[in-house]
Design brief:
The longest helix has 37 residues. By secondary structure, the chain is mainly α. It has 11 helices and 2 strands. The protein folds into 2 domains: 217 residues, Orthogonal Bundle (Lysozyme); 32 residues, no CATH class. It has a two-stranded antiparallel ribbon with strand order 1-2. It is globular, with a radius of gyration of 22 Å. 49% of the residues lie in helices and 5% in strands.
Length: 265
């Protein structure tokens, strides 16, 4: 949800550091892994128990039946959702401002059952880790969430609240996209309606968001130590966003020092 239609038509957030453990059980039930149709094997009445020889399959004239051998496979082999994805290690490719949030990003991955690298990709593009940033369109915080996604009275710049609203929207997009990370990212930027529409109908901003997001995420999950696409994003203007994020994180550190000092007095 950067300065984008998604954000402008649907989502964003950021600022406290309370641990989200209390949300885990309630939230992860809301995030399911997309399923394919059942994987089937052909079995003859004579009882094929192992691999079926081609000749046996083609020559069989006995009654045949189909047996379901697995019913819970994700649509995509590299699915960013589910228990295994949720505990993926965070790649080193992200900028220091995003790495600042690494411990809590890993916790959010477990809570929302989303690959932490996809979460970090969203933070990278949306705010570069700045918990105080606001867009001209009104998107707020670390995940750049639009105000209408928050409940009355919620602090939009609270990190946990901002993350809850942004990641709930991302998880819904992943469900609509059958686990396709690129389409979910496009939906995060341009609104969920773009997920079922063709690329040519997307706003140019959403097309760019898809380009940056999918490539950075792919490079992060490939085991690379650096992301050429992230460098490209930084040179295209992201560096300014990250410079502001550095200042905001210093401000946050100073506030925490003052809070700690007051508490100890």
């Amino acid at each position: 949800m950067a300065a984008n239609n998604h954000t402008h038509s649907q989502s964003r957030k950021s600022k406290s550091n309370s641990h989200p453990a209390g949300l885990i059980e309630r939230l992860k039930r809301r995030i399911g892994v997309a399923l394919t149709g059942a994987l089937l094997i052909l079995c003859g009445a004579g009882g094929f128990t192992g691999t079926l020889a081609a000749a046996s399959v083609f020559n069989a004239t006995v009654n045949t039946r189909y047996q379901v051998i697995e019913t819970n496979r994700p649509y995509y082999a590299q699915s960013p959702v589910g228990p295994e994805a949720a505990v993926s290690p965070l790649s080193p490719v992200f900028t220091p401002q995003v790495q600042y949030w690494a411990p809590i990003i890993l916790a959010w991955g477990v809570v929302h059952q989303i690959d932490p690298n996809l979460i970090a990709t969203v933070i990278q593009i949306e705010s570069c880790g700045d918990p105080y940033v606001s867009s001209p369109a009104g998107a707020q915080g670390l995940f750049q969430v639009m105000p209408f996604h928050f409940a009355a009275g919620e602090d939009m710049l609270d990190v946990q609240t901002n993350a809850l609203r942004g990641l709930t929207y991302l998880a819904e997009g992943l469900e609509l996209a059958d686990g396709h990370a690129g389409l979910a990212l496009a939906g995060y930027n341009g609104g969920h309606g773009v997920i079922k529409r063709g690329w040519a109908t997307w706003a140019s901003e959403t097309q760019r968001y898809y380009y940056w997001g999918t490539r950075i995420y792919a490079e992060a999950t490939s085991g690379m130590e650096a992301s050429p696409t992230l460098d490209e994003w930084l040179n295209a203007g992201g560096r300014n966003l990250c410079s502001r994020a550095t200042q905001s994180l210093q401000r946050l550190e100073n506030e925490q020092v003052r809070t700690t000092a007051l508490a100890s007095n």
